[in-house]
Amino acid sequence: MRWRSAVLGAAALVTVLSLWLASTFGTSFLPEFNEGTFTIALMAPPGTSLAASNRMAGSVEQQLLQIEGVRSVTRRTGRAERDEHAEPVSNSEVDVTIKPGYDKEEVRNEIARVLSQVPGITTNIGQPIEHRLSHILSGTPAAVAISVYGDDLAKLRVIAKEIETAIKPLPGARDVAANREVLITSLPVRYRPHDLAAYGLSPASAAQQVRTAVFGEHVATVNQGVRRYDIVVRLASDQRDQIDDIRDLTLRGKGGAIVRLSEVADIGREQTSNLIARENAQRKAVISLNVAEGYNLGHLVEEVQQRVDPIVAKHGYTVHYGGQFEAQRSASRTILIFSGVVLVVMLMLLNLAIGSLKVSLLVMVNLPLALIGGIAAIFLTESTSVFANALALIGIGGRYQAPVISIASMVGFITLFGIAVRNGILLVNHYRNLVERESCTVEQAIVRGSMERLVPILMTALAAALGLVPIVFRGNEPGNEILAPLSVVILGGLLTSTFLNLVVVPAGYALLFRHQLNVVPSALKNDRIPISETTLVPQGEFS
Question: Which residues have CB under 8 Å from 279's CB, separation 6+?
């Protein structure tokens, strides 16, 4: 009771220090999954033939099989046009399964070493669920997608190349790729209307005949058991593979006139874009990247923005950062807003239940007390070497590896707050009952109430903690990626909030009622009966 101010001051100091520590943490959308499989995207230059792409991907596949720890390798080269994820034959997707017991990062580094020796291709290493999640969020298989919007295609290419060059040296950036519109060789046919009219042809009829000759015309369907085959008629491959073959195509006019295509059209090679990427009625270039091991999404995007924003502003174009970063920022904002609303509602309900705003605020003190343990638990579990990382935090030693707070960790804090407030309610309600119903002084109520509520509070906290310990110690196992960060926060917060709740709340209650510590409630003081006027009844004579 005599050190109540010192206790509260020490708790406030530790809370401030823990909040400062949390300000150094990084952020991410979801914890990194441990799926046991890597998905590797191999992107050869557009226009690469199926045979060349298959030869290149097959060579990579054989090298990956030689890596220690790799159990199997499967590959898909290209995707069908009507597939939900249609890909050209120049792109391949390789799935690498890891043997149990091998370190995921070591195998990943070996895979990156193999891919770095293959010239002329763009690669991206991820995991199946991560790839699908990134595709849903940004349309790219990477964690961060930088979209630059503008109208000039040539300028977009220049900007994309500048951004790619600027962010590749960043230590935390991995798999940097500018998925910009690439120039490829095409063969356009431009008809001359006057020459077409001389032979009784229109641009539409001429184009239809050229299309039929090159791509074919569906003439029938053959049923063979449960399968159906379309029969297409077109020129033989040796009559349509060369530019001269296209120029020599014969067209037939309405009056029966026959003319070569070169006589009514201009045909020649031309550099054109391999795709048209648009969003919000504007062309866009996309630069994608992943987060390297030992770094985090939030800090990496901050560094990327510092380098990319000046480049885009210099050209007068606009930029948008998407992918998991955008989802993380949106989810964090939503959680923080609703957490504020919940805290206000909790305070209102506590005030109604307890009948005192001061005591209600004292119960809410459990929230920062819970934060202390949660933040400390994240630092301990996310640091490879706790001591070395602590020294690096204050500028001694190597690079500080910022622990990461994900959406799962934030949900853990919300759950923890409810448990911490419950313990505070158990204490202050018992204090009030002892004062109002058993005629205790405030000091007696604090001492007696704390002792009587010690076992219930410890039992509830211990039961919750024991249920979380297995998840925390097996957090690196597949399937525990989401539960582990949540459990770490709750377990760490339970340890500090339970202990400090039994120290800080009594001290705070004594400070709030410091003028009434040894005063019996007036309602009971006036009704007290002097001992001299009481009548003692011998045991056994009760009627």
Answer: 147, 149
